[in-house]
Design a protein that fits this description.
Blueprint: E1 5-8, H1 12-18, E2 23-26, H2 32-37, E3 45-48, E4 57-59, E5 65-68, H3 73-77, H4 80-85, H5 87-94, H6 99-104, H7 107-111, H8 118-121, H9 163-170, E6 172-177, E7 183-187, H10 188-191, E8 210-216, E9 224-230, E10 241-250, E11 253-262, E12 269-270, H11 272-278, H12 285-296, H13 308-326
Parallel strand pairs: 1-3, 2-3
Antiparallel strand pairs: 4-5, 5-8, 6-7, 6-8, 9-10, 10-11, 11-12
Helix pairs in contact: 5-9, 11-12, 12-13
């Protein structure tokens, strides 16, 4: 690990003022510190922001909720209102990493997790995300855990977050503090980027912007929900494929639905066509199967990850069936 300076902050203005092009904000550090140890990230300065007062969970006048970016994943997932009104989010967050890591990791940091591609972590191998224009080692290499949607020749890695898949399904907005003192909100669907020709840029944050809050849509998917995570082992493993599913039923038909996948793209992958198909349909296995076929029809796997297509279909049906059974 190379030398760096550490800057403690007591308010957001100090943090914003201290930021330079070679800085990183530090909150829980569960991803950043690992990357620094491997010389993947080499900031000259860390600005500690975890103690800034963005750690609350509050209900808004319209019934929606706002959660602080500096609140830990564990505290968020176990909060009584999150468990009651956003059980899909709680379920996804509690499936991530280990209890110790969830105690340290923060909501804002979770949004900014870097890819877990082995070529990204191994500095002796080519990686456009780590070193632009150096090539993508996974493209013709070991790619069994890589993307089947939305990738480019520059990067085929996947986004690792479980929390973000649930946020995509239920609908969320990220609020950030800009360097000039103003703030802006970014729909979660627009927060993360597909790799395109700039795989080194994971999100649409501008340099120095600080995540302060995550705004959750009014709870409408709390009766029928499921998060299915398929992984190589039951603890401390990232999803090969995951599915977040939540819906409402009125008059025995689906009236509201949110569906998203993880482990298949450079960002949480919204299943919009499957959602549209299921609206107004009965929540039965045959309809779930048709929705899964629609969701996976445009998948373009590599030789090493062809298994993700049938696995994805089965995971979608399983998540929807579990969601339906929970509400019965």
């Amino acid at each position: 690990m190379r030398p760096f300076t550490y800057t403690g902050t007591t308010n957001r203005n100090e943090a914003l003022k201290a930021f330079t092009t070679t800085s990183h904000y530090l909150s829980g550090g569960t991803n950043l510190v690992d990357l620094m140890k491997e010389h993947v990230e080499q900031p000259d300065q860390l600005i500690h922001v975890k103690n800034l007062q963005y750690n609350g969970i509050s209900k808004n006048k319209d019934g929606s909720y706002t959660i602080g970016a500096m609140r830990s994943n564990a505290d968020t997932a176990n909060h009584k209102d999150i468990r009651l009104y956003y059980p899909l989010l709680s379920m996804a967050m509690l499936s991530a990493a280990t209890a110790q890591i969830r105690n340290m990791a923060t909501n804002g940091g979770n949004l900014l997790q870097r890819t877990r591609c082995p070529y990204f972590f191994e500095t002796s191998m080519p990686c456009n995300k780590r070193e632009p224009e150096s090539g993508c080692g996974a493209l013709n290499g070991v790619n069994d855990q890589h993307a089947i949607f939305g990738y480019s020749d520059n990067c085929i890695a996947t986004h690792p977050s479980d929390m973000c898949v649930a946020l995509a399904a239920i609908g969320a907005t990220v609020e950030v503090q800009k360097v000039d003192g103003g703030s802006r909100k970014i729909d979660l669907e627009d927060f993360h980027r597909l790799p395109g020709d700039k795989p080194e840029k994971d999100s649409n944050l501008e340099p120095g912007e600080l995540i302060t809050h995550i705004h959750l849509a009014k709870p409408e998917l709390s009766n029928h929900y499921a998060y299915v995570k398929i992984r190589e082992r039951s603890s401390y493993a990232f999803a090969l494929v995951s599915v977040a599913a939540g819906f409402q039923i009125e008059d025995e038909k689906i009236s509201k639905i949110g569906l998203a996948m993880g482990g298949v793209a450079h960002k949480p992958w919204k299943l919009i066509e499957a959602e549209e198909f299921l609206l107004g349909k009965k929540p039965i296995e045959s309809n779930f199967g048709k929705a899964a076929e629609l969701a996976m029809k445009d998948a373009k796997p590599f030789e090493g990850n062809r298994y993700k297509v049938p696995m994805g279909k089965n995971a979608i049906v399983r998540a929807l069936m579990q969601a339906n059974n929970i509400g019965e």
